[in-house]
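I am writing to request your help with a piece of structural work I have in hand. Thank you for your consideration; the sequence and its tokens are set out here:
=====
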Amino acid sequence: MSEAPPPIKPFVDLSDEQVYWDLADTLSYGQYLHLDKLLDAQHPLSYQHDEMLFIVIHQSSELWMKLWLHELTATMDCVRRDDIGPTFKMLARISTIQQQLLQSWDVLATITPADYSAFRNALGKSSGFQSRQYRLLEFLIGNKNEDLIKVFRNDPPSHEALLRALRSPSLYDEVLRLLSRRGFDLPASCIDRDFSRPYQASKAVAAAWLSVYHNAEKEWELYQLAERLIDLDYKFQLWRFAHAKTVERIIGHKRGTGGTGGVTYLNKALELKFFPELWAVRTSM
């Protein structure tokens, strides 16, 4: 005869666990994370079921972008100090954050056109185009466009933060300065320029990166840094593409709530590259 299966326990036995049940005089989980504020920040303006999903996805994306900015700022500080080792962990974490953001479009895409149309008018003119953190990310990584901060003129703190980022060296600017300090011959126009202007690809910079790739063993840190930058750029492009296709899936080619052309505007960004020479070097090898 086969043995009887062990009985299924109706609950987890905590009798041998030293759980802190009384939290009156200590910091609790909810207090540490300020969950009272965090979980009270979702206020749908309609009675439509899917508006809650729309709000949560965008709020959680802003939290992920906050962490991304935290890691990106620390990465740039390390590059300025010629301390490249710690950047590998930070850029790897950014890559994972990007993957989380990319997957968020899959959840948002469960909203059907009818679902979204039912509450879209409640959004008014609010739009992801007005995301301060997204613009900071683009400026800090290297996509500078002064026109994009006009929408923040009625938000002085955001406008000031974006103006500082616009006028400061980007991650790629700092990496090119690092290349110069490491002995690569780069023109002054590439490392000492008007940082508020869009970066223009340089043959000299492409030649420097080609040398790094051809001498990867000798220039291992720079080679690894270049590959992590490519990963960042690659996943940013995937994020943009997923954004455009999700918008097209839900609203087709309607104009965006922020006044842009919607999908037509989003498609314009699909060919943008933060690190053009790192892409070009692949053809040259």
Notes: The two ends are 70 Å apart (CA to CA).
